Structures are given as C-alpha cells and as structure tokens.
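quick one: adenosine-5'-diphosphate bound model?
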Amino acid sequence: MLKMPANGVSSRSPLSADADSAFVRIDGLSKHFGDVAALQHAALDIRRGEILTLLGPSGGGKTTLLNLVAGFLVPDGGSIHIEGRTITDVPPYQREIGVLFQNYALFPHMNVGANVGYGLKMRHVAKAEIQRRVAEVLALVRLTGYDLRKPRQLSGGQQQRVALARALAISPKVLLLDEPFSALDKNLRASMQLELKEIQRQLGVTTIFVTHDQSEALSLSDRIAVLSEGRIRQVGTPNEIYRRPADRFVAGFVGDVNTLHARLAGVESQCAFVALGAATLSVPAEPLRGLSAGAPVDLFLRPEQLRLAARGGTSLCEGIIAAHSYQGAHFDIHVASDAAVSGRILIRQAQSDASAQWPLGADVAIACVTQDGVAFAPER
Ligand SMILES: Nc1ncnc2c1ncn2[C@@H]1O[C@H](COP(=O)(O)OP(=O)(O)O)[C@@H](O)[C@H]1O
Ligand SMILES: [Mg+2]
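yep, here:
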C-alpha cells in the first residue's frame, strides 16, 4: 500500500509538537576519512512528510550525511533515529529507506519492471503483489506501459524516473535523493523538480534531498540545511535562508548578494540599526554582538533590494554605471562604487528600457527598496 499523506492524524497530544516534529533525528553525527572531517557533530531534525534539502558546495559533507542515514557508512560518533527508534546499528536493508543517487545506475540487463520490483523481490514479496506495486509506482512517475523496456531504451529523464520508482516501490519511510537531476539539462531538471514535489506531496513521504544548486533548493524545499566543511551552518525555510542568512557564508552561497561598507548605528535587543549614506536599515542584532556603535560592518543586500535613482535624494551611496546584462525578465546592472567591498554593486531592475534610462558611464545614486537587510562584522 502507498503511504498516504500524514495529515496530523496522531495519538500524541498537540503539546508534544516537539516529538512530532522529529521524524528523523540526526544527533551529533560525525564522520572522518583519515584526516578529513567530512561531517562534524551534525544535528538535524527532519519533520514527518517534509522535503528537507541539504545544500552546500561540493565536498561539504552532503553525500556523507546521506550515506550515514542510509546505513552505507558507519559514523565515528553520534546517532540516527527514525520515529524515535535508534537505527544507527541497523543494516541498510532493514532501515526502510529508499535511495536515489545521481549515478545510481539501473541494472542494465533487467527491464524496467524488474528494476522497479527489485527491492520487493529481495524482501520476498509475493509475485502478484510485486506486479501490482510496480504498476502503481510506474503510474506515479508517468511510465505506465514501460515495464518491458531496457534502461538503454529510455532517455536520461525517464531513467531517473524509473530509479525514483524503484526507490519508492518499497514504500520507504524516508526517501533519500542525492543530486538526482544534476545530469539533466535545465528545462528537464525544472520539470523533474516539479514532478518530484508533486509525487512527494501525494505520498507524504519524508524526504532528504541533496543539491549544490541553490535555486533548486529554494524552489523544491520545505526547509533547507546549509552544509559546508562538514558543518551545518543554518536550518530554515527557503525564505529564512534567503532573507535572514545566519552568517556570511550562507549569505554569499544562497543567491546573489552585494556586500557594502556600512556602520553600526545602534542596537535594540533583537534588532540592530546600520547606517549607510542617508539610509538606516534594521538588521538582526545577533551576528553583530560585541560591536559598539560606530563600528564598521558589512551590510548584505540582494540585487532586487536595490534600485537606481538620480543623484541627490536619500540614497545609500553613489556610483557609475559599469555594465548592463539583459536577462529577459529583468536587467542586471553593474555599478562601480567605493561603497561595495568588491567595488561593484549588482542591481536587478524589471524595466525593459533600463539600459536606455541608465546608460554606461552615467552617474547614479543607489537607493534601497526595503528597510531591512543583514549585516556581519567585517572579515579583515
Ligand atoms: N570514501 C571517502 N574517502 C575519503 N574521503 C572522502 C570519502 N568520501 C568523502 N570524502 C571526503 O569527505 C568530504 C565530504 O565529501 P562529500 O560528503 O562527498 O561532500 P558533498 O557530497 O557535499 O560534495 C570531502 O572532503 C571528500 O573528499
Ligand atoms: Mg555529494
């Protein structure tokens, strides 16, 4: 039977939301390979039915964490729990986990039906039940009728759909996906992301998705855990990660960002005020703890949080138009300015005539379209 969405039907009282929220609990998990600390004291709760994405640069420890959850690797320290049961020492095939890797090749000599039914056969499920189940998951990935094809007779996208069907056939408690679409071209990848999200919702299967692609993570996830150098840097909704990055690394890795020289104007409990030019913005106080009023800070603003204006008004800073780049739905405008740590500010404007309005070499002012941003102590 396919697992239907977990819609809050629970014997627990509403007050035990904490216990409910951790369907998978990763507790202080570490893994070394020789001198390399691939994962260091990772702690993470994955909620029932959500898609949680591990996002980070290559070598950050994403695959290591996934392999530990799957049971393909043994941790040096820490533990893993599913529905409150410790599975750290349970062998992979008893964990009820479905896995789909980028290069998790289908068995080339087996047809689609045999590939999808493989896990069930290993579990000694009756033949008729395997057939029923294979048909069910092939319908789910829109490959009804492909049972007798060999993998080589399928496109790359179809092969990954078969691999997804194979991972789902065993009705896993947890679905693990490691960069499953990274070999596909851009358009196919986008449609596979949508399709995965739909299937995941339909089944309500708790999913851990790995990617190094920040736009994939932002569009697909209920929550994102940003991982770099074996450490979890931040866990939050896509909007929290994008709007309220916890540190410089997250701010720079997820989306384009401008880093501007600003000053700390003051702190009021949770909220700090940062001044640049004629503007004062409110930012989270936490990253600026220990700095006093007047201290230099780096203000992080997204390209769409800025706009161009004629020189004069209440602006953040001034500069000279250095380059335009037409992107179809918007213009990217690069402004040379001393206010930026890199000497360049990127502004994203929607008007199609932006390049005519702001020609190369024009003197401009840069204003902010929001009252808030994030700021961190300078790196120097
Ligand atoms: N089997 C292994 N042997 C030695 N080093 C490994 C092994 N697997 C991963 N590593 C190292 O551990 C770190 C994390 O790797 P990995 O988890 O694959 O990162 P990601 O999936 O985020 O790219 C890297 O420095 C990588 O070189
Ligand atoms: Mg990897």
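The longest strand covers residues 36-46.
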